[in-house]
Design a protein that fits this description.
By secondary structure, the protein is mostly helical. It is 74% helix and 0% strand. The protein has ten helices and no strands. The relative contact order is 0.08.
Length: 194
């Protein structure tokens, strides 16, 4: 629920939900779930532009994951690994405008299990967005094209939203042939932007 709230721009609600999840995870004694709650808290704090509190929550997430005995994790938490944590770090740094750090973690997030197609689409779109913000539209388009190819295999409003955000970020470069071609492919694949 925290993920969804943050994605929808309800930062305070996302923060409250992450903190409530963290309390429950600590009471249940599930360190990996505690790590996820901390990283969601960090993401909400990054969206609120509270860099210091975000850094503290990211540090707590790392510490909790280091303490986790992954052999006893519930199966439904198997997705939470180093690649997932890196993706969340990337999102946090991206929200804070720290694109050098965001790029490093977003690239690291792609060292993930290939079964998580939706996550890979998200992570590629994140890295593409970072490159767009860094003034590297060709690289952004190449990564965005990979994200688009994966998104066509999914039914994910979030994956589509990330591509539409990337399309908007690339708009100042729309005269470049690479950008024009890529954004045209997005419209042809996903339909024209409303």
């Amino acid at each position: 629920m925290s993920h969804q709230a943050i994605y929808l721009g309800h930062t305070t609600t996302g923060l409250d939900l992450a903190r409530a999840a963290g309390q429950t995870a600590r009471r249940a004694g599930v360190p990996v779930l505690t790590a996820e709650a901390h990283v969601m808290e960090a993401h909400a704090l990054a969206k609120a532009n509270d860099e210091r509190a975000c850094a503290a929550a990211l540090h707590q997430a790392e510490q909790a994951l280091d303490r986790a005995d992954r052999t006893t994790d519930p199966h439904w938490l198997s997705y939470f690994d180093e690649a997932y944590l890196s993706a969340k770090f990337g999102h946090c740094f991206h929200a804070l405008g720290r694109n050098t750090h965001a790029e490093r973690f977003a690239a690291r997030s792609l060292r993930m299990d290939d079964r998580y197609v939706r996550g890979r689409a998200f992570n590629l779109a994140l890295l593409a967005s970072i490159h767009a913000q860094q003034g590297e539209p060709d690289r952004a388009c190449a990564l965005g094209a990979q994200a688009l190819a994966l998104t066509t295999q999914l039914r994910s409003a979030r994956a589509v939203g990330y591509l539409r955000d990337l399309q908007a970020q690339l708009a100042p470069n729309r005269r470049l042939p690479t950008v024009r071609h890529f954004t045209g492919r997005i419209d042809a694949t996903l339909g024209p932007r409303r």
